[in-house]
Write a structure and sequence with these properties.
26% strand; 9 strands; Arc Repressor Mutant, subunit A; alpha+beta; two-stranded antiparallel ribbon
Length: 253
């Protein structure tokens, strides 16, 4: 997978497309074509290469196919090739900031979309997501607690400190989980309104035994600091989940 990512990043036109999504996520093909001096077919080919490498994801919103930057592979490259050589402050270099001020017609579109392929069954992913013993292995040493019923509360705990809380908005084991989300442990985010986090867990269409895990964070118009924290943190959570399920180890091992 790393070879596909490096190959995808080697082309300046593809880097320009990623820069566009970095500046403003959730763009249509027409919007991405505008700054590039090439045909729609040429842009589509580049987008397909980026999607195959996992650097972008796509979602249908109404009649449009929208493209989103996927920060998870960037985080994995950082963990593999940068973190062990760099000083701790280099973490900030891999935080891909999205523009939070969207056009009015973007209000109903998903905001941050992260996706990763994990060599595990959907049931194993679901158990990792809902079992507090397992979540503590990849979610910054935090355990998620809930009865896992529709409209039931959930809490994220680290030792004796409650880090976040919310409500189960929809639950369809082992394929879909929708949560409201509010941080408690970050003073500058404690006043944010609840946002929404959606987990989609789907078997890979072509690779038996592989599951695609997609996390969408949206409805954070009144929660800018929460969005910033999760934008940086969710790629680490997903990378940690993949490492734990595939190897039994944690990112810090």
């Amino acid at each position: 997978m790393n070879n596909d990512i490096f190959k995808a990043l080697s082309d300046p036109s593809r880097r320009t497309l990623l820069d566009q999504l970095h500046a403003s996520d959730g763009r249509s093909l027409n919007e991405l074509c505008a700054p590039l001096d090439m045909s729609r077919f040429g842009v589509m080919k580049h987008l397909n290469i980026l999607e195959e490498a996992g650097l972008i994801t796509t979602r249908k919103v109404g009649r449009e196919k929208l493209h989103y930057l996927n920060a998870v592979p960037i985080r994995q490259i950082y963990d593999r090739w940068v973190s062990k050589y760099a000083e701790p402050w280099a973490f900030g270099l891999t935080a891909l900031q999205n523009d939070l001020e969207r056009e009015p017609n973007m209000e109903n579109k998903p905001r941050h979309v992260n996706r990763i392929a994990i060599k595990a069954k959907p049931e194993q992913v679901w158990q990792a997501l809902t079992d507090p013993v397992k979540t503590s292995k990849f979610w910054f040493n935090c355990a998620i607690r809930s009865t896992w019923e529709n409209e039931s509360p959930f809490e994220l705990w680290n030792a004796d400190e409650k880090k976040a809380e919310g409500v189960i908005l929809a639950i369809e084991p082992p394929r879909r989980l929708v949560l409201s989300w509010r941080f408690l442990s970050f003073p500058d985010a404690a006043g944010d309104a609840p946002s929404r986090m959606t987990w989609e867990i789907d078997p890979h269409a072509e690779l038996p035994g592989v599951t695609l895990v997609t996390v969408v964070h949206d409805e954070f118009e009144q929660s800018a600091r929460t969005a910033e924290i999760l934008e940086n943190g969710l790629p680490i959570v997903l990378s940690g989940m993949k490492t734990f399920l595939e190897t039994g180890s944690t990112l810090s091992d």
